[in-house]
């Protein structure tokens, strides 16, 4: 945790995404990191609902990995529980489908 805090204090880009569009928060959840790191990343992420290139957001990833700590923290932070394709469903609904 100390290393992460040091990197952030030195200006490491908190919004960096890898080639799959995953953020540090995505990776911390996938690795089942501890509560302290996940909370830190939630606090330093501009969009906790950000979806990677496959359409998965941190809350969806936490739920699919049965990571109850991350799920709880994300919900407390106001993460959106919607579906991966909410925008498509909304448009289809507007056109009567």
UniProtKB/TrEMBL annotation:
ANK repeats lie at residues 20-53. InterPro entries: Ankyrin_rpt, Ankyrin_rpt-contain_sf. The keyword Disulfide bond does not apply. The keyword ATP-binding does not apply. Gene3D superfamilies: Ankyrin repeat-containing domain (1.25.40.20). It comes from the Bacteria. Signal peptide: none annotated. PROSITE patterns: ANK_REP_REGION (PS50297), ANK_REPEAT (PS50088). Keywords: ANK repeat. Pfam families: Ank_2 (PF12796). This is Uncharacterized protein. It comes from Rickettsia asembonensis.
